[in-house]
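Sample intake sheet
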Amino acid sequence: MTSPTLNVRVVRKAAEAVDIATFELVAADGSALPPFSAGAHIDVHLPNGLVRQYSLCNDPAETHRYLIGVLRDPASRGGSQAMHDQVRDGDLLRISAPKNHFPLAHEARRSLLLAGGIGITPILCMAERLALTGAEFTLHYCARTPERTAFRERIRRSAYAPRVHFHFDDGAPAQKLDLDATLARPEDGVHLYVCGPKGFIDAVLATARARGWAQAQLHYEFFSAEPTASASDGSFEVQLASSGRVVHVAKEQTVLAALAAAGVEVQSACEQGVCGTCLTRVLEGEPDHRDSYLSPEERAANDQFLPCCSRARSARLVLDL
């Protein structure tokens, strides 16, 4: 099943920082765009046929435009390069309506926001929303250099600038983020939000969990994932619960690809296990989870998995398809 898409026009592409561009999108027909909340993203259908997810970083009160920021990633599989090299002012693009897998917990007494590099895009929107509502928060923003720090001037001009701490890889040791100190004491009602490169998120979450932070207080969103193939991977079967049909998944094939080859369409986007679009219920069998989307508790339940990257530990999985 394919979700409806929106036609938008790029009205402004701008250099935001070294290797980071922003794209301002408006509805092609001039109408209002669907509403969104802080932490939301859109799927962007790129000129080369790929679909990638980009967080919205403008004010959610705006209905006339969406703003996204895109890092040119040297390890890109074609997404960021297409945005930087192929998309120009005036171009038409297809996008999804906003989705939010990374929302603010409005019951939080205080919020701790941690951004690494381009991970500032959803975190920025959160900071501005929290500031607008008068909520208590602190933002730590880690980047390689000041020149590679997106939205630095926008943050410095903001009323909440005193709550923001910048940390640069090329700066003095004293200004670098001390995760142990920052996350030392979990408190009831304090929620942690983190977004950025996988290594950054993994380090933050590992430190928080080691210090006793409850999973319900940890919120995160990955932009990409590392390859999950293993030399020990073998073939297995998936069965469609609705018909009983069995589909063979080869050693070097994803479940998503095997289903597609068999004429079974599952909605997908990132194909890296980060966006959750292809999330599928598992009725029987044990998944081999390789995604960056499900929480440890959700993985342990073994009642859902992401067929774009995850496999099976059992000989067969029965899927709710």
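Comment: The mean pLDDT is 92. Residues 236-319 form a domain with the Ubiquitin-like (UB roll) fold (CATH 3.10.20.30).
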